[in-house]
UniProtKB/TrEMBL annotation:
Transmembrane residue ranges: none
Presence of the UniProt keyword Cytoplasm in the record: yes
Co-factor(s): hybrid [4Fe-2O-2S] cluster; [2Fe-2S] cluster
Organism: Shewanella litorisediminis
Encoding gene, per UniProt annotation: hcp
Taxonomic path: Bacteria, Pseudomonadati, Pseudomonadota, Gammaproteobacteria, Alteromonadales
Name of the protein: Hydroxylamine reductase
Molecular function in Gene Ontology: hydroxylamine reductase activity
Length: 554
């Protein structure tokens, strides 16, 4: 196996990356290899989807399937070999269909098709050992000895960035948002990656194209979420348990949460959000359900303890899942969509009765805990509503600086940087936050500035879109470039959604972003230097040094 896609990857002086029997996330070598083979096959589907489009065909099934199956290979998403193999076989049959249709269409039109990479024609073996043998072709660092390390780093940056965009494409699709233009651009880049290009400039351009693509995807997802559930509004959320039977919904997929809320009405079950589902509590069409009682627990990395202590059923709608056997709750956790863990019940379709039955069979919370409320719901609309007051306070000197502190959470001790950073921000500054990284400080008290809460929770990681909209609006009011605003981004990263959000920000020209706790291990010192020179991208150092640097510069 070779996997280096997330922040917790194994780093050794001899070489970085998870490359032995198992990754740090628990992914076994066979699973990792099968995921590589799946990605290889998906590149082949995309190559034919590009051809099909050129020939006037509409590869709509590939438009849906490729991003969805690609999502299954993100960190902490799917550990189930059989499901990965099913995706690979589906990719093969879809690719073969597209190939046949494209060849026919080309013959009719008298067009000669150029040769496509091997992934466009590989026939999968019938047994798992055969597939594992074929997976050797698909290792992401295949032939690394002969490839310049910066080229390899750029390939991985593109691969992991596009993976993040694929996840958001699938999140948008669930909310009935799809775009043929976005799909075409996605396949174009995926097919390009399938060519194993060694052209550093072309790869760098592709990385920026992925960022631009993802900006459109986040806009589409924002449209899907607000059309389905209304605009988030500032909302007080209880973070303590309430007496009664219980279901906990984690991950990002709010459509699943809505289905669960509908199907649990009148059943005496309380529904809680966990991790990245917290922002759902601010959407009018979700918060209207009285049995959506609050948020339980914190970010994904604490789930083994939090799910173990939760006396009800748990639904994992998307990333990030970790081994449920450790906390002995594998018999009461359910996976959805692209998520998978061997032996855990996977639910397809809209029927959650298995979850409801499980919740009813469990004891639930025996008593109410004293409520602790936090405020959420400052996405695009609420931020824009607050913008005039914010502008006024900037003009009269009450607000000196804006910080966007957020991203992914994780369990490394160094991540306390983000708690300390938020705590150390000056009292005349606002802190915008998003992603599960917010749990590092979202239960702390930050007070307000003339009635404006100092801590503004924008939402999920993809709601970076709202933060960008606010920055654009402020730059228009103050008639300056985004980079001239008193705004600093301090982002925690963990997995590939964060990589693509970073690429989005860079492709929009946002400069001087700080990321931590460590630089991606797949980037080389040269490439990090290029990113620093071009975009002012820096790694976090110490809270004191970073804050001094930021505030002196501003
Ligand atoms: Fe967190 Fe996991 Fe949203 Fe990520 S739950 S780490 S960036 O998948 O998706 O912030
Ligand atoms: Fe290692 Fe991260 Fe890959 Fe898991 S996802 S194998 S921890 S690099």
């Amino acid at each position: 196996m070779f996997c280096i896609q997330c922040e917790q990857t194994i780093r050794t002086p001899a070489g970085n990356g998870c490359s032995y029997a198992q990754g740090m996330c628990g992914k076994l070598a066979a699973t990792s290899d099968l995921q590589d083979l799946l990605i290889y096959m998906l590149k082949g589907v995309s190559a034919w989807a590009v051809k099909a489009r050129e020939l006037g065909l509409a590869p709509t099934e590939a438009d849906t399937f490729v991003p969805k199956a690609f999502f299954a290979t993100l960190t902490n998403v799917n550990f189930d070999d059989e499901r990965i193999i099913d995706y690979a076989r589906k990719a093969e049959s879809l690719r073969n269909e597209l190939k046949t249709q494209s060849i026919e269409a080309a013959q009719k039109a008298g067009i000669r098709l150029d040769t496509l990479p091997d992934s466009a024609s590989l026939l999968l073996g019938t047994s798992k050992p055969e597939l594992l043998e074929q997976a050797k072709l698909a290792l992401p660092n295949l032939g690394k000895e002969a490839i310049h390390e910066d080229v390899m780093a750029l390939r991985l940056l593109c691969l992991y960035g596009l993976k993040g965009a694929a996840a958001y494409i699938e999140h948008a699709r669930v909310l009935e948002q799809q775009s043929a233009d976005i799909a075409a651009e996605f396949h174009r880049i995926m097919a390009f990656l399938g060519t194993d290009s060694a052209d550093a400039d072309a790869l760098f351009t592709a990385a920026m194209d992925i960022g631009q693509l993802n900006f459109k995807v986040m806009a589409m997802l924002d449209e899907g979420e607000t059309a389905a559930f209304g605009h988030p509004e500032p909302t007080q959320v209880n973070t303590k348990p309430v007496k009664g039977k219980a279901i906990l919904v984690s991950g990002h997929d709010m459509k699943d949460l809505e289905l669960i809320l509908q199907q649990t009405q009148g059943k005496g079950i309380n529904v809680y959000t966990h991790g990245e589902m917290l922002p759902a509590l601010a959407y009018p069409e979700l918060k209207k359900y009285p049995h959506l009682v609050g948020n339980y627990g914190s970010a994904w990395q604490n789930q083994q303890k939090e799910f173990a202590n939760f006396p009800g059923a748990v639904v994992m709608t998307s990333n990030c899942i970790i081994d449920p056997n450790v906390g002995q709750y594998a018999d009461r956790i359910f996976t959805r969509s692209i998520v998978g863990w061997p032996g855990v019940v996977h639910l397809e379709g809209d029927d959650f009765s298995a979850v409801i039955e499980k919740a009813l069979s469990l004891e639930g919370f025996q008593y109410d805990e004293i409520p602790h409320e936090i405020t959420i719901g400052f996405a695009r609309n609420a931020l824009m509503a607050a913008a005039p007051a914010v502008v006024e306070n900037v003009k009269n000197g009450s607000i000196r600086h804006f910080f966007l502190v957020g991203g992914c959470d994780g369990d490394k001790a160094e991540r306390s940087y983000f708690t300390d950073f938020a705590k150390a921000t000056p009292k005349d500054s606002l802190i915008l936050t998003l992603g599960c990284g917010k749990y590092k400080f979202n239960k702390l008290e930050f007070g307000d500035i003339n009635g404006i809460p100092r801590l503004l929770d924008i939402g999920q990681c993809n709601d970076a879109y709202s933060a960008i909209q606010l920055a654009i609006a402020l730059s228009e009011v103050f008639e300056c470039d985004i980079n001239a605003l008193p705004l600093s981004l301090v982002l925690s990263w963990f997995e590939q959604k964060a990589i693509v959000i970073l690429l989005t920000l860079l492709s929009l020209g946002v400069k001087n972003i700080r990321t931590g706790p460590t630089p991606p291990a797949f980037l080389t010192p040269n490439l990090l230097k290029v990113l620093e020179d071009k975009f002012g991208l820096k790694n976090t150092t110490t809270v004191e040094a970073d804050l001094n640097a930021i505030l002196n510069v501003a």
